[in-house]
Amino acid sequence: MTLQLRTYAFIDRMQPQAAAHVAATCQGDVPVAGMSELYIEVAPGNEIFRCADIALKAADVRPALQVVEREFGLLEIHSRSQAEVFAAGQAVLEHLQLKETDRVKPKVASAMFVTNVNPYQAQLINKWRKGNLLIAGRSLYVLEVSPAAYVTLAANEAEKAAEISIVEVRALGRFGRLFISGTESDVQAAAGACTKVLDEMAGRE
Fold first, then answer.
1. Per residue in 126-176, pLDDT tens?
2. In this predicted model, what pLDDT tens digit does every residue of 28-60 receive, in sequence order?
């Protein structure tokens, strides 16, 4: 299988909810708000173990996630220093003999906006969410992106842009999904921020 850099997503400053969601769901070191982080996803999946080894030896970073799911491998690293995260990422790219722009460009597979969420639908979503509770009557935005890990960047940008609640972030698999809620105007503003940051990322089609 040809080596593929599916995701290379740098987050300059983790927002409080985004950081808390990673901390609540990760297997490794927990990040906190204000840290920088980097998501790297590759195929074949087993290559992520070498990527993690190189990143951790190259700079003072810590891993929250190292996961292989079917054909893809995902790594998250973070640090209080943007420079350290950048150095770790560059070391991985040099090992792969690739550039940041060799990553797959994110594509929005679908986007769903629901106003005045019904109480029963809110309760169903609350059964499996790992973030904030979805409150009935609020607006809900569900974003589906490929490759999956880019939803983490979208979630962080959404929180920067508006007073929203992060309900769930699913960054594993073929498609990633982000669930956010809030007032209709705030959710619309956050949705716009998600789309903008993904559209502006350079990469292979």
1. 999 999 999 999 999 999 999 999 999 999 999 999 999 999 999 998 899
2. 999 999 999 999 999 999 999 999 999 999 999
Query: Distance (Å, rounded) from C-alpha 38 to C-alpha 7?
Result: 10
130: its two tokens: 């790992």
What is the reported pTM?
0.94
Concatenated DSSP letters of 68-92:
EETTEEEEEEEES-HHHHHHHHHHH
Instruction: Please tell me the distance from the alpha carbon of residue 185 to that of residue 68, in angstroms, as a whole number.
Output: 38
Among 132, 131, 151, 140, residue whose Cα is nearest residue 7: 151
CB 89 within 8 A of CB 8: yes
- Domains of the chain and any CATH numbers: 4-102 (3.30.70.1710), 107-199 (3.30.70.1710)
Q: Which single residue is written with the structure tokens 């880019």?
A: 150
With CA atoms as reference, report the closest residue to 109 among 152, 157, 148: 148
